[in-house]
Amino acid sequence: GEAAYRRTREAIARDLEELEREEDDAWASEFLNSDSDMGDSSAWFCPFLPSPLVRVRRMVEVVPITPADHCLDIGCGDGRVLVTAAQSTGCHCTGIDIDAGLIARAEVLAAEAGGEVEARCAFTAGDALAKRGVVAGGEGEGEGEGGDGDGD
User: Fold this and answer.
1) Is this structure's pTM higher than 0.85?
2) How far from 142 is each of 26, 74, 114, 128, 150, CA to CA, in Å?
3) Which of 13, 81, 84, 133 is the most exposed place for a label (fewest CB within 10 A)?
């Protein structure tokens, strides 16, 4: 019940804290070898910094994701987190990123993982902030943009 849920959440928090403390040489290697085309830098809040695969795999291990879950990653980059989650857990995934080149890489990564993984992953190039009403809570006008959601 509630106590088991709390213990699970505490264990996840400890695992993630431990993960953050670990020194990760793979991050530096992947960051330095990133070839993302940032295009018009005025549209960027920050450059793409890939999560090291060792860290991605560990995150997917410690978060209790099931095949019934649907994961959303806003700013998904090359899709490695979502593809790994779909591959490891059977969940469905949706990724949004402003960089169409990264979305293309995410789609290739999902395809390379196999047809079942590719079918469970959907990637969209676009500005998540421009879609606030959809992402933040619903179909009503004004939602997600400071409105009360009642359309007036």
Assistant:
1) no
2) 43, 20, 40, 16, 7
3) 13
